Amino acid sequence: MSSVIASLSQRAAHCVAALWLCAPLFAQAQNVAEQFKTVCQSCHGEAGVSQTALIPSLAGQPSFYAVTQLFLFREGRRANSLMTAVAKGMSDSDLRAYSEYIGTLPPPPAQSMDGLNADRMSRGAKLAQEHRCASCHGADFSGGKQVARLATQREDYLLQTLREFQSGKRLGYTTAMNETLVGLKDDDLPDLAYYLSNAPRAK
Ligand code: HEC
Ligand code: HEC
Questions:
Q1: What span, in angstroms and rounded, lies between the C-alpha atoms of 187 and 130?
Q2: How far is the CA of 158 from the centre of ligand 1 (A)?
Q3: 67 lines ligand 2 (CB under 6 A)
Q4: By percentage, how much of the chain surpasses pLDDT 90?
């Protein structure tokens, strides 16, 4: 675990350096694809598919969801030292340009089904059904409008962010998620994250 944290903070230092160099580019929304490559990919991965622990993939997220989250980071309502630093220099048109670009990135591909733990998948599926996750996130968990895509998102990030919603550390744009998680126990969250991350291949 400590090596994960060490490699993450090493990566973060690299990203923040890239960000500093690229800060003047923020104003030029027309170069958003280039800026995404230079600034965002160093953390969020090529074409927005993250290879880094606890950093979410952006690929496949609805642009409306992306813009609300960038707004929350910029205004300091969603707190994360790495992302807050990125978002705080953005203008409204930067927020829109990045979000529109994110909306064009194809979702991360589903992984192979080999080695999937069937017990954990069925426990996760049962919890998702009991708590009606699909009623907002869609039958295939691909999200839409201001609701996040969950399918093929990194499991470690899903688990962390669910814990943050549950503890009240992460405040959503609305209180939908904080309220949804009230009925869930700490022990439920790992199987839920496992299932959601892998859900498309369960169908
Ligand atoms: C230094 C690393 C770093 C860089 C550079 C970075 N991000 Fe992030 N980003 C993060 C982390 C870490 C999170 C997750 C924060 C959390 O857990 O609350 C995140 C979350 C996000 C989210 C919310 C995703 C979700 O599923 O809720 C969006 C949108 C986003 N970043 C967009 C961007 C854009 C656009 C750029 C480039 C302008 C960028 N990020 C650059 C680290 C970074
Ligand atoms: C009433 C609608 C609603 C229901 C029901 C719901 N969600 Fe959400 N969920 C949302 C919205 C809206 C967001 C975006 C958060 C925000 O507003 O900032 C979200 C965000 C999330 C995120 C963050 C994704 C990311 O990329 O950061 C996770 C994880 C999540 N939901 C999991 C779940 C799970 C698991 C369930 C079922 C236990 C569930 N949701 C039920 C509306 C809902």
A1: 15
A2: 14
A3: no
A4: 78
